[in-house]
Amino acid sequence: MKDNIFKTELLDLASKLDAVTNSCGELIMAANAVVEEQDHASTIYLVRKTSKLKDTDGVQKEVKVLAVSLKDSLMKFYGYLHIMEANDQFKFQRDDDTRTLSELLDDLNKLIGLEVVKSKVNDLIAYQKVQVLREQQGMHSQKGTLHMAFTGNPGTGKTTVARIVGRIYKKIGLLSKGHFVEVSRTDLIAGYQGQTALKVKKVIEQSKGGVLFIDEAYSITENDHSDSYGRECLTELTKALEDYRDDLVVIVAGYSKPMEHFFASNPGLKSRFNTFIEFPDYSANELYNMLEKLCASNDYIMSADVSQRVLAFFKEQVEAKNENFANGRLVRNIYDDLVMNHARRVATYEHPTRENLALIIDEDFSIPHTSSKLGQNLN
What we know:
Distance between the termini: 48 Å
Structural class: alpha/beta
Strand content: 5-15%
Number of helices: 16
Strand order of the largest sheet: 2-3-4-1-5
Mean pLDDT: 85
Order of helices and strands: HHHHHHEHEHHEHEHEHEHHHEH
Number of strands: 7
Helix content: 55-70%
Shape: globular
Radius of gyration: 26 Å
Oligomer: single chain
Largest sheet: 5 strands, parallel
């Protein structure tokens, strides 16, 4: 659910009214069901309860005031939610991306590393483009399912590639909108029986015409022996993969091993996907090139000394990497630290030059806490 500014007010009023009417938590439970799941039965209960308290003779004035306030808060909550959903629908329908197909392909191919990934994606795009052209000429075409699975460690570019694929598919006529919706388990699974299917349907409806990206998709089924909500989600999702295959691309992503379990959890799930792409970890040189590119795009330059230390740091991290190795996210963290340390240093200059404002030097690089041994080696 969107961050509703009336959520706290509704819960607070329900708690107060529950206390003064000795409702034993019933009003609180109903309010929680409303703000978390927009539960229909709980909404009706609150409307009827507050109306009865307001209209019953002999009820204390304080109780009537709270009942009226709670009913008003309930309406404001749903009104705000409705407006936000309408705004989302408008946002999803807009086409703000003015890049041409060649520019989008160029953006894909300019990504650092990922050579095998880019090759597979380019082949896939070429195939789908030709199928669209054949269809336009009245020839037999076999586009097949567009859904994909991206596997690999965090920070390897899965989300970036997924966004570009959505825009490219829009340009070649496979998708009507090409927008990008990213969700996780909490966006798909509800806390009450029967509500999960409604949440999944809502997400699917928002995503139609574009790309639905489900990160850490295996989390849906990680408790499959006891999690009936996860199974409910997967059943609804599997159905949608087939029903909307002509104007929806679903990309599931996550660690390689858990994703194998994800596909094994539902007999019909894996057959809905025909493209499986493994995203490899970045090399030390690729991480360094990413950092250098990030600096250049923001008008920063690394000195030779700091460049050597950063590259040595990346080599150490790649050699010692474990399941928490952050890949591209590590680059972003290093960049943020460099820029902040640079700012602290240059802010003390009375009249900094253009070179001072751009140049990142050795003292701006502090070894992250992830490797005390590395700090000893490099300092």
